[in-house]
Amino acid sequence: MIDSMRLVKLSEYIRQLINYLLAIVLAVILTVSSLWVLPVQADPAPEISRLSSGTGQVQTAKAPIQSNSFVAAAVNQVGQAVVRIDTERTVTRRLPDPYFEDPFFRRFFGDSFPQQLPSEQLRGIGSGFIIDRSGEVLTNAHVVAQADKVTVTLKDGRILEGKVQGVDEVTDLAVVKINGGDLPVASLGDSANVQVGDWAIAVGNPLGFDNTVTLGIVSTLKRSSAQVGIPDKRLDFIQTDAAINPGNSGGPLLNDRGEVIGINTAIRPDAMGIGFAIPINKAKAIKDKLMRGEKISHPYLGVEMRTITPQLAQENNNDPNSPIPIPEVNGVLVVRVVPESPAAAAGLRRGDVIVQVEGQNVTKAEQLQSLVEDTEVGQALQIKIRRGNQTQQFSLRTGELQTASISRG
């Protein structure tokens, strides 16, 4: 009985030993097979031997890292030309309380009360990019508007004083001049060739983080400034989902070839991951005038307007509380006529619907605004309207839009 138990235990030990030996052999076979199948990896940072001049000693230098990323290639092409713009301006505010101006109040307290608060230094940060070796920097108007001091920092570490040459608030564009040698220049593309779905690369200094790059696509084209929520501008934006944050303003929006197709300018805090850029062709058209300090003229009619459709007009007309009846047609509704404007002089009224300009049908407010923007100040336009059940023709001569007024057609 004892011998049989010993035999059983011995056979169990032998079986376990055989299993261990088989596992070891299998592991060796798999290791050898993997070494035979997989090629030997080269050193990711190979070193190249070279002789040091004058010493005769052999030194090593790492070969430059090459990237297959089109994003890296595009940024490397333009990145050195992207700059950080810091601004400072002094603001003095008067006391808002009207009692300080009241003669009765001053009889008791005299002139000892200050009329204005102490001056305050306001600082801002934005982005820009160099477009000429002479030192022309393109940026947003709101980045440098009313700045007392402008400082431009290059990616190579140079800090240069900037001078604002010209500002156009309507298109939110500005040109700043810097003086420096061996300046890098960004390559300007053609925004007319941009298509929805193209790659979009935003470069700038968002939230003070210098030299930041974000990637997305062009979401849509010709997004009007009214739709974006900035009615004091006259622009058709490039919309992108590339992350654009405060501080990105004025920086370039690149295509996949490293060409500037837009100037990052606006974000909507209520929209997740949507940014807007001014098409570069708009900047090309006025940058030289801005550099010379010339004023950019913008024609206008002098009406506040809304797009109207027969359905919207019918809803208005069916409302017993509606202030005015609206012709049930497609066109641009005149919501208000600005006093002493070209529209007022021509005889346009609230409730008129503009249906044609120079023989071209208009169905949207943005379309009308674009048509007016493409004219010259003082140019006569033939405008057809619907007033009630009648169709009337007006000859209207455009005026010059003042930047202090809100955006109108």
In words, what does this structure look like?
The longest helix has 36 residues, at 2-37. Mean pLDDT is 80; it is low at 34-63 and 404-408. The chain is extended and about 115 Å long. The strands form five sheets. Strands 3-4-5-8-7-6 form a six-stranded antiparallel β-barrel. It is of the alpha+beta class. It has nine helices and 22 strands. Helix content is 23%, strand content 33%. The protein has three domains: 72-111 and 119-177, Beta Barrel (Thrombin, subunit H), CATH 2.40.10; 191-285, Thrombin, subunit H (Beta Barrel), CATH 2.40.10.10; 299-400, Pdz3 Domain.
Shape: extended
Strand order of the largest sheet: 3-4-5-8-7-6
Q: How does the helix and strand content classify structurally?
A: alpha+beta
CA distance, first residue to last residue: 112 Å
Radius of gyration from CA coordinates: 34 Å
User: Any idea of the CATH topology of the largest domain?
Assistant: Pdz3 Domain
CATH superfamily of the largest domain: PDZ domain
Percentage beta strand: 25-35%
Unreliable stretches covering 5 or more consecutive residues: 34-63, 404-408
The number of domains is 3
- Helical fraction equals 10-25%
Tally of separate helices: 9
Average pLDDT for all residues = 80
In this structure, how is the largest beta sheet organized?
6 strands, antiparallel, barrel
CATH hierarchy: architecture of the largest domain: Roll
